Amino acid sequence: MRKNGKGTKRKGPERSQGASGHSREIALKLPRDYSTEIRRRASELGYKTVSDYVLALHRFRSQVEEPEGTYRPHPALESPAGLPPVRPRLAFETKLGRVYSGDSAKLMRSELEPQSVDLILTSPPFGLVRRKDYGNEDADRYVSWFEQFAEGFVRVLKPNGSLVIDIGGTWKPGLPTRSLYHFELLIMLCRKFKFHLAQEFYWWNPAKLPTPAEWVNIRRIRVKDAINCIWWLSLTPYPKASNRRVLQPYSESMRDLLKNGYKPKLRPSGHDISDKFQRDNAGAIPPNLIALANTESNGAYQRYCRAHGLKEHPARFPSGIPANFVKMLTDPGDVVFDPFAGSCVTGEVCERLGRRWICCELDEQYVRGAKGRFRDTQASIWATGAGPTRTKPYEIYPPNALITNDREAPLVPDGGRGRPKRPTSDGG
Ligand SMILES: C[S@@+](CC[C@H](N)C(=O)[O-])C[C@H]1O[C@@H](n2cnc3c(N)ncnc32)[C@H](O)[C@@H]1O
Known about the structure:
Distance between the termini: 31 Å
Number of helices: 12
Order of helices and strands: EEHHHEEHEHEHEHEHEEEHHEHEH
Strand order of the largest sheet: 3-4-13-12-5-6-8-7-11
Bound molecules: S-adenosylmethionine
Shape: globular
């Protein structure tokens, strides 16, 4: 980092050695929003520098222009850290778990026993989309890359087990439209690999920033994208599960009802509300919307990475996400597998909840950083601050809670095709 004349920090040109060891600087002139977005994306996908990311995109572009039949997976998908998939090796073990360093598709073929896993729980690298006005090639590439893992999942999962995939949507570069890759993935898993969609969950992250700023803050034609999809799949329509493990505190009105009673009656919707609703079941059955900010303190993990000069994983999920599904879908002693383990949040959650677990991660640096999670796992996940400690509900307003005047807020002409003359970046 260097300072410019006004004393604010400015990033200097990056130097990437490239495969040959020689490098040359090329100055790129990009609108500020794009350069921020590119930096964020590069770091999210695990590239060390923006140059490495641009190089991978270029290689991909060159491949795309090769004749039909020479398809190779997108390099950023095959190996987000720019590493070739390698034969997995056991990196370290804990009381209940094992961490492998290497390619999980290979691990599932070579190391894991058929039908040995009760729950596969993971957050795969998100699809990298490329500019294409029509068609859905980005999604096609992602889905065909994923098939090697799907084959492994079918092999190692027990017949009554579950597969839970946390996957965020993404925008098509340069367009205010969305990629379909995560829906295509779901359809491929169900159609080709015969998974059942047990239920879809939506994870709402109240702390998510409004991106891409161009569509949300500047042109004001889209709203904040604050949801990840979580596909819960299974090989049978009846995977083992219980919602009793994930009950939530009753709402104030329900507590009132339990205290003061309720007169059974027919609701306007036609539902007959019987007196069974007065039974105290020790908590409310949660909806399939999970509200959880991704602002969890990862103190011990971060301190360990810093002390050992290791990069922290940039796309960690909060422990409340794996904890929810580990509790609902497995018993103590069951085996949980995370094939795209990153910093091994899933492993830490399982260790603290008494489940056996296996994590596999391609990037050696993340594997080494993950060790920092397992130095003190005696305390319960709920007591350490590493776990989901917030118990207060989040607030979300119903639509039209703020009355706006149509005339004072006209629709954006041309659907935002052009930039406003005086962009307002007020965050809305
Ligand atoms: C979205 S991150 C997972 C983050 C993780 N849930 C956490 O909270 O730390 C996806 C990870 O998959 C890893 N990955 C990509 N391809 C892989 C492969 N073939 N085998 C194992 N890991 C892979 C990437 O290096 C990346 O760290």
